[in-house]
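My current task is to audit a protein record that another person submitted. Alongside the sequence sits a line of tokens, each denoting a local backbone shape. Please read both lines and tell me whether the tokens look consistent with the sequence. Do not assume that whoever made the record got everything right. Thanks in advance; the entry in question is below.
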Amino acid sequence: MPTYTFFAVDKGNMTLIQFPNGVSFLVDCRRSENRKSPLEYLESKGVRSLDFVVITHPHRDHLSGLEEVCEALRPQYLWHNGRYFEPDPVYDDWVFYEELRGGKISYCSPVEVRAGQTATIGNANLLLAGPPSPYLTGTTDDENNNGVILSVTSGKSKVVVTGDTQEEQWDVVDFRSLANPAVFVASHHGRETGFSEKAMERLKPQHIVISDGKPAQTDATDKYRRIAPVSTTRENSVVVQQP
């Protein structure tokens, strides 16, 4: 069964999925001044190469450290949401991400993914539940609301990894394929902006992981704890082996 490591990267996301057949799958990348670098984290888990990198959306807290990781571990594929977004100010890892997304890095093939697409890795079935088609526009944050949402099912167990999805994207997600996950990664680092009563009622997660640093004033951890047991990365990384 796959092993998931939700790294302690403070306010950001970085998840490593290691499949039993040796495939390594990184969802988002985040460098924190107070933690190991993303590359150091991956090497500590025995990762010497990457097969896939998934960037849920190109905000800095999901991208920083990406260039160092890719240059060292040379992923074969980049999955991305297909949208162009230019940060202000522009920073190095975003420039590198755009080169990856544009197919300008020889060792990595970019793949634009959309809701409804599927893939198989070993005995695990992967499903994309976001970004929507067509893209959402005019929302409170169009990048957050057009992010990649990934479900990984192995046997009878399911893990759902989100980016920073907010209410507008939750409103258009097909929950039927995501329901009853063994583990659900709270959107937008466990903040109120990512919390959706509708999503939680439909999904009914058994366990919730919050990737966050010191809680913000908009923290929704207590709301999640009323739904299911919660683990956070505020102190240490969280490791889960899919049952």
